[in-house]
From TrEMBL, chain A:
Annotated function: Part of the ABC transporter complex MalEFGK involved in maltose/maltodextrin import. Probably responsible for the translocation of the substrate across the membrane.
Superkingdom, taxonomy of origin: Bacteria
GO molecular function, one term: ABC-type maltose transporter activity
Protein's name in the database: Maltose/maltodextrin transport system permease protein
Membrane topology: Multi-pass membrane protein
Pfam family, one: TM_PBP2_N
Residue stretches spanning the membrane: 33-54, 60-78, 87-111, 305-329, 341-361, 390-412, 439-458, 503-525
Presence of the UniProt keyword Aminoacyl-tRNA synthetase in the record: no
InterPro entries noted in UniProt: MalF_N, MalF_P2_sf, MetI-like, MetI-like_sf, TM_PBP2_N
Organism: Nesterenkonia sandarakina
UniProtKB/TrEMBL annotation, chain B:
Region listing for Disordered, in residue ranges: 1-25
Keywords tagged on the record: Cell membrane, Membrane, Sugar transport, Transmembrane, Transmembrane helix, Transport
GO molecular function term, any single one: ABC-type maltose transporter activity
Compartments where found: Cell membrane
Membrane topology: Multi-pass membrane protein
PROSITE patterns recorded: ABC_TM1
Domain ABC transmembrane type-1: 100-298
Any Pfam family: BPD_transp_1
Homology family: Belongs to the binding-protein-dependent transport system permease family. MalFG subfamily.
Protein name stated in the entry: Arabinogalactan oligomer/maltooligosaccharide transport system permease protein
Length: 535, 312
C-alpha cells in the first residue's frame, strides 16, 4: 500500500547518504538526544543492578539473559540503522516476557507436579518436614532470648552458656554476631536489627510460636523455639534424614521413608510424607485429565458447556442485536438517539459489576426477580444446574447485545440502500430482499467480529465466576468444578481456589485450551482470509 | 473505512427534519399505518430500554437504601439516603478508597503504556518494510488469540520467583501487575492502530523528511497527532478492560490495601453474602461512574473504532 520509505534511491550514492545522515542528525534535536541518553543510561543501570543481584542469588541463566538483552537493546538504540527494531523493541520485550515466555512456562509447569505439597525443592521439603515434627529435647539447655526483626523477618538473638551471642531466623541458621549489647545475660541491641518490645511480642504471638530457627545447616541438628519470647529451647525432629541413603526415618516408630521418585518420601506401603517437592512428572497431568474418571467426566462436560456457552452467547446476542439494528434503522422513527443511549449502557457498565448485580437480583430467597417479578416464588436461578446455565445466557445476552447492535447498525449503514430498492423493483418483498441481499453482505463484514466474540466468550471468566462461581458444584468430581464452569474458570479454581492448588494440572488444562483455541483460530482465519489482507 | 453511525443527523433522508414537520407527517398517517411502520418500533424500543436499564436502576436504588440487605433493596427507591456511600469509606477491612485509587493508577498507567508501545509498533509495521514484517504481524495476531489469562498459573509462578529477588516488581506489587498488562500491549491494539496508520498518506512523511525531519520527530510531532482518534479509542478500550480485569489482579495482589476494585468488591460480597448489599451497590455505582462517563462521552469514536475493525 505505501511505498518503501527506508531505502530511497538516493541512498545508493555516497553523497546522498551523507546528506541524509546530516539531515537526520540535525533534526533529532537535543531534547530527544537527552531523553535517549537518559533512558538508555537508566536501562543499563537497572540491568547491571538486576544482573548483579541475580548472580548474587546464583540465578546464572536469568542473570546472563538480563545482561544480553540489556546489551542488545543498547546496541539497537545506539547505532544508526535498525530503525524498525527501534520502534518494535519496547513492545516486543514485554510480549516476550509476559506472553511468549509464560505460555512456554505453562507448558513446563504442565509437566511437573507443582502445587500444594509440591511447591519447592527437595532441601526445602526436608527442612519443612523436620520443622513440622519437632519435640522439645528433654533436659536441653535454656537460652535467654531476644526476638529481633530485620526487613520484615523475625529472628532470634540468644546468648549461650559460654557467653557467645548468636543470631538467626527461619531461613538463616544461628550464627555468631559482633557488636551486640548484652544486659543481664540478655541481648538488648543488635546492629541492623530491631528488638521487639513486649507489646509487639503479644501482638505477634502466633507468628512467634511457630518460628523455628535452625541450629545449623544440618537439618538433623534441631532448632530453637520459644513459647513466651523470653526463653528458647532446643527442639529436634522425630525424623532423621540420612543423606547417604536418601531416607527419612521416624525415630519413634522406626518407619523408614524413601524417595519414591515422584516428589515425596514414601514408605513401602505407599504412605506419603508431606510436604513433598517439585519434580518432573512427564505426561502424568495430561494422562490424569484423560484417564482418571473423576477428572475426565467434568473435563468433558465443561468443554462441551464452554462450546455451547460461547456459541449460544454469540448467536443470541447477534440475533437480538441485528433485530434491534434493523428495527432502529428506520429513518422515519423519532428519538432513536435516546433509545440507543440507554441501550448501550450495559456495554459501558463494567462487566464484573454487572455479573455481581445480576447475581444479587437472581438470588433464590431475597432477589428481586423471585421476590418481586415472580411474586415470592423460589426459583433456583443460580443453584439448579440447568437454570444456572440459562441464567448465564440471559445475563450474557444483556451484556452483549449492545455491542452487536452497534456493529450491526454500522455494517447495515455501510450497505447501500439502492441494493434493497433494486431488489424491491424486481418484485422482492422486504424480508426477502433483506435475507438474500443485505444479510449476506452484512455477514461478510461482521464475520470476523463474530469470531472474535466467540473467542472472547470462550474465555469469559468474569461472567461465570462472578455470577455463579461456576456452581452449582459437582460433588462427585475429583476437582473443584461446577456445572456452569467454563474451561478458563475451571483452570482458575484448580489453581487458586480452595485449600488445594494443583498448578501442574491447571497448566495442563491451559495447554489443552491453547490447542483448542489455536485450532479454532486457524480454521477461522482460513475461512475469513483475514491474513491475506496483510500486505 | 470508518462509518458514521448517526445517519439521523448526517444523512439527508425522507424523514422530516424539524419536529413540527415530523408531527404533521405522523398526523397525516392513519394510526394503523403509523403503527405498522414505526409505532411497533417504539414498543420494541421501550421493551429493550427496560431490559437494558433495569439492573442499573435497581443497583442505583439499592445504593440509596440505608443499611439495606438484598431483601430491602427490592422496594425500589423506598428509602432515600446517602449513608451507604458514607459507610463505604469507613470500613477498615475493605479499604474502598484505596481500591479506587489503585484501580485508577493501574488502569491509567497500563492504558497509557499500551498505547505508547502499540503506537510505536504500529508505526514500524505501517511505515517501514523490513524482513520479517509479515511474519511479525501474523505472530502478533496469533499470540493475541491466546489471552494472557490462560497463562495465569505461569504468570503467578513467574511473579512469585521475581518477588523473591525483586520484591518491588514481583508478587503483590502494582508495578508488577502493570508490567504484566503491558505484555498484552502488542495484541489487538497494534492491529487496530496499524489499520488506522495505513490510512494516513505516506506522502506526509516524505514531505516532512524532505524538510529535514528525522524519524523520531515525524513520529512524535506529525503522525501521533494525526492518529489521535485511534489512540483515544485504544486508550479507552484498554482502560476499561484493565478496570474490570479480575483474574490476574486477584492472583497477583495479595494485601487488601493493594487490591483493585474488581478484586476487592468481589471478595466483599462473596464473603459477606447479602448482608451489606446497599454498601456494595454504592461501591458499584462509584466504580462504574468513570468508565460509563468516558464511554458515553467518547461513544461515537469507540463505535467507529469497532466498526472500522469489521467493515472494510
Amino acid at each position: 500500500m505505501s511505498a518503501p520509505t527506508t531505502t530511497r534511491p538516493d541512498e545508493r550514492t555516497v553523497h546522498g547518504r551523507r546528506a541524509r545522515r546530516t539531515a537526520e542528525s540535525a533534526s533529532i534535536g537535543w531534547k530527544l538526544l537527552l531523553l535517549k541518553i537518559t533512558v538508555l543510561g537508566l536501562l543499563n543501570a537497572v540491568s547491571v543492578y538486576a544482573a548483579m543481584v541475580l548472580f548474587f542469588n546464583e540465578r546464572w541463566i536469568i542473570g546472563t539473559l538480563v545482561v544480553v538483552s540489556g546489551a542488545i537493546l543498547t546496541w539497537i538504540y545506539l547505532q544508526r540503522g535498525a530503525l524498525p527494531a527501534k520502534y518494535l523493541a519496547p513492545g516486543v520485550v514485554f510480549l516476550l516476557i509476559f506472553q511468549v515466555f509464560v505460555i512456554l512456562y505453562s507448558g513446563y509447569v504442565a509437566f511437573t507436579n507443582y502445587g500444594t505439597g509440591h511447591n519447592s525443592t527437595k532441601d526445602h521439603a526436608i527442612h519443612a518436614i523436620m520443622l513440622q515434627t519437632q519435640d522439645r529435647v528433654p533436659d536441653s539447655p535454656t537460652y535467654p532470648l531476644t526476638v529481633v526483626e530485620s526487613s520484615d523477618e523475625l529472628g532470634f538473638a540468644v546468648t549461650t552458656e559460654d557467653g557467645e551471642i548468636l543470631i538467626g531466623s527461619a531461613d538463616a541458621p544461628l550464627e555468631a554476631v559482633e557488636g551486640a549489647v548484652v544486659e543481664d545475660g540478655r541481648v538488648v541491641q543488635v546492629p541492623d536489627h530491631q528488638v521487639l518490645s513486649f507489646a509487639d511480642l503479644v501482638e505477634r504471638q502466633q507468628e512467634l510460636t511457630t518460628l523455628a530457627v535452625p541450629l545449623s545447616d544440618d537439618p538433623n541438628a534441631g532448632a530453637l523455639r520459644t513459647q513466651d519470647g523470653q526463653r528458647a529451647y532446643v527442639y529436634t525432629s522425630r525424623f532423621v534424614y540420612d543423606e547417604s541413603s536418601d531416607t527419612m526415618t521416624n525415630t519413634q516408630t522406626g518407619q523408614t521413608y524413601t524417595d519414591g521418585g515422584e516428589g515425596a518420601f514414601v514408605t513401602e506401603a505407599g504412605e506419603e510424607l508431606m510436604p513433598g517437592w517439585r519434580v518432573n512428572v512427564g505426561l502424568e497431568n495430561f494422562v490424569r485429565a484423560i484417564t482418571e474418571e473423576s477428572i475426565r467426566g467434568p473435563l468433558l462436560y465443561v468443554t462441551t458447556w464452554t462450546f455451547a456457552f460461547a456459541f449460544l452467547s454469540v448467536a443470541s446476542t447477534f440475533i437480538l442485536g441485528l433485530f434491534l439494528a434493523i428495527v432502529f434503522n428506520d429513518p422515519r422513527m423519532k428519538s432513536r438517539k435516546y433509545y440507543r443511549l440507554v441501550m448501550i449502557l450495559p456495554y459501558a457498565f463494567p462487566g464484573f459489576l454487572s455479573a455481581l448485580v445480576w447475581a444479587g437480583m437472581m438470588n433464590q430467597e431475597f432477589g428481586f426477580i423471585n421476590n418481586v417479578l415472580f411474586g415470592g416464588a423460589a426459583i433456583p436461578w443460580l443453584s439448579d444446574p440447568w437454570l444456572a446455565k440459562l441464567s448465564i445466557l440471559i445475563v450474557n445476552l444483556w451484556l452483549g447485545f449492545p455491542y452487536m447492535f452497534l456493529v450491526c447498525t454500522g455494517a447495515l449503514q455501510s450497505i447501500p440502500e439502492e441494493l434493497t430498492e433494486a431488489a424491491q423493483m424486481d418484485g422482492a418483498r422486504p424480508f426477502q430482499a433483506f435475507r438474500q441481499i443485505k444479510f449476506p453482505l452484512l455477514l461478510v463484514s461482521i464475520a470476523p467480529l463474530l469470531i472474535s466474540s466467540f473467542a472472547f466468550n470462550f474465555n469469559n471468566f468474569n461472567l461465570v465466576y462472578m455470577l455463579t462461581g461456576g456452581g452449582p458444584r459437582d460433588i462427585e468430581a475429583g476437582i473443584n468444578v461446577g456445572s456452569t464452569d467454563i474451561l478458563i474458570s475451571m483452570v482458575y479454581k484448580v489453581a487458586f481456589v480452595g485449600s488445594q492448588s494443583d498448578y501442574g494440572l491447571a497448566s495442563a488444562f491451559s495447554i489443552l485450551i491453547f490447542f483448542i483455541v489455536g485450532t479454532i483460530s486457524v480454521i477461522a482465519f482460513r475461512r475469513t482470509r483475514a491474513l491475506e489482507e496483510l500486505n | 473505512m470508518a462509518v458514521a453511525l448517526e445517519p439521523q443527523t448526517r444523512r439527508p433522508n425522507r424523514a422530516p427534519s424539524t419536529p413540527r414537520a415530523a408531527k404533521s407527517a405522523t398526523a397525516r398517517r392513519p394510526f394503523r399505518r403509523w403503527f405498522s411502520q414505526t409505532g411497533w418500533r417504539h414498543l420494541v424500543g421501550v421493551a429493550v430500554v427496560i431490559f437494558a436499564a433495569f439492573p442499573l436502576v435497581y443497583v442505583f436504588s439499592a445504593s440509596l437504601n440505608p443499611g439495606g440487605t438484598l431483601i430491602t433493596a427490592n422496594t425500589l427507591f423506598g428509602n432515600l439516603s446517602l449513608s451507604s456511600y458514607v459507610d463505604l469509606f469507613n470500613r477498615p477491612q475493605q479499604p474502598f478508597a484505596a481500591w479506587y485509587v489503585n484501580t485508577l493508577f493501574i488502569g491509567f498507567s497500563a492504558s497509557a503504556g499500551s498505547v505508547l508501545l502499540g503506537a510505536l509498533a504500529a508505526y514500524a509495521f505501517s511505515r517501514m518494510r523490513f524482513t520479517g514484517r509479515r511474519f511479525g504481524l501474523i505472530t502478533i495476531l496469533l499470540v493475541q488469540m491466546f489471552p494472557q489469562l490462560l497463562a495465569m498459573v505461569a504468570i503467578f509462578l513467574l511473579m512469585l520467583s521475581i518477588g523473591e529477588i525483586f520484591p518491588a516488581i514481583g508478587l503483590n506489587s502494582q508495578i508488577g501487575l502493570i508490567l504484566v498488562y503491558l505484555g498484552g500491549a502488542l495484541g489487538v491494539n497494534t492491529y487496530l492502530m496499524y489499520g488506522f496508520f495505513n490510512t494516513i498518506p505516506t506522502s506526509i512523511d516524505e514531505a516532512a523528511r524532505i524538510d529535514g525531519a528525522g524519524h523520531a520527530r515525524i513520529f512524535f510531532t506529525i503522525i501521533l497527532p494525526l492518529v489521535s482518534p485511534i489512540l483515544a479509542v485504544v486508550a479507552l478500550l484498554s482502560l476499561v478492560a484493565t478496570l474490570s480485569e479480575f483474574v490476574i489482579a486477584s492472583v497477583l495482589l495479595r494485601d487488601p490495601e493493594r487490591q483493585t476494585l474488581a478484586v476487592g468488591l468481589y471478595q466483599f460480597i462473596s464473603q459477606e453474602t447479602s448482608q451489606n448489599w446497599s454498601i456494595f451497590a454504592a461501591g458499584a455505582v462509584l466504580a462504574a461512574i468513570i468508565p460509563v462517563a468516558l464511554f458515553l462521552a467518547l461513544q461515537r469514536y469507540i463505535v467507529s473504532g469497532l466498526v472500522a475493525g469489521s467493515v472494510k
